[in-house]
């Protein structure tokens, strides 16, 4: 919380940067820690790190994410301004911010990434899991609504088909 507040003060007056910093600390970093926990080791290769970063780029642009975390609703365009692809998002989010600016991730000579302190891993991974569950809950509700609408449409079509069959069979 203190780190996030400090980053928000640092970028006072720049809403895009404030949103990005908040997202990186509250969402991307916990997702990275969750991936480390899933892999059962405190470091990730470039390829392994790219997975949660790519997913975060896609997630930022999704309606479900905005519904799960309304503070970002309608802000993805602003947050991704000047970032045209997931590889540019990786460069910005990981290399520029989490490694160089904030120093929360370190990069080894072998190209592996790790948290600056391993004792943050459990806390961040738990936050990442909370975020994942919150988003999954929204996605499940949306899926149930779509399935319900599809089932209703199928019933209406089946009923109409039966009515047409009865009308044509009765002639």
Instruction: Describe the largest sheet.
Output: 3 strands, antiparallel
Q: Helical proportion?
A: over 70%
Strand element count: 3
Order of helices and strands: HHEHHHHEEH
**Taking strands numbered 1, 2, ... along the chain, how are they ordered across the largest sheet?**
1-3-2
Number of helices: 7
Question: How would you sum up the global shape?
Answer: elongated
Terminal CA distance: 75 Å
> What is the strand content?
under 5%
Radius of gyration: 22 Å
Question: Low-confidence segments, ≥5 residues, pLDDT <50?
Answer: none
- Roughly what is the average pLDDT, rounded to an integer? 87
Class by helix and strand content? mainly alpha
Overview features:
171 residues, three-stranded antiparallel beta sheet, 3 strands, elongated, mainly alpha
Give an account of the 3D structure.
A three-stranded antiparallel sheet has the order 1-3-2. Helices cover 73% and strands 5% of the residues. It is mainly α and 171 residues long. The mean pLDDT is 87. It has seven helices and three strands. Helix 1 packs antiparallel against helix 2, helix 2 packs across helix 3 (46-60) and helix 2 (15-39) crosses helix 7. The chain has helices at 2-10, 15-39, 46-60, 63-68, 76-79, 86-101, 121-169, and strands at 43-44, 105-107, 113-115. The longest helix is centred in the last third of the chain and has 49 residues, at 121-169.
């Amino acid at each position: 919380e203190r780190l996030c507040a400090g980053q928000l003060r640092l970028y006072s007056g720049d809403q895009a940067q404030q949103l990005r910093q908040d997202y990186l600390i509250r969402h991307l970093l916990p997702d990275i820690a969750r991936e480390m926990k899933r892999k059962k080791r405190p470091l990730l290769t470039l390829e392994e790190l790219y997975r949660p970063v790519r997913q975060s780029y896609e997630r930022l642009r999704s309606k479900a994410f905005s519904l799960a975390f309304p503070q970002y609703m309608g802000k993805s365009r602003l947050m991704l301004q000047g970032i045209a692809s997931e590889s540019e998002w990786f460069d910005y989010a990981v290399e520029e911010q989490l490694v160089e600016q904030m120093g929360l991730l370190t990069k080894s000579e072998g190209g592996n990434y790790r948290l600056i302190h391993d004792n943050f891993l459990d806390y961040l991974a738990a936050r990442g899991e909370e975020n994942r569950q919150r988003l999954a809950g929204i996605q499940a509700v949306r899926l149930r609504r779509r399935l319900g609408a599809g089932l209703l449409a199928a019933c209406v079509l089946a009923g109409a088909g039966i009515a047409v069959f009865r009308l044509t069979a009765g002639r």
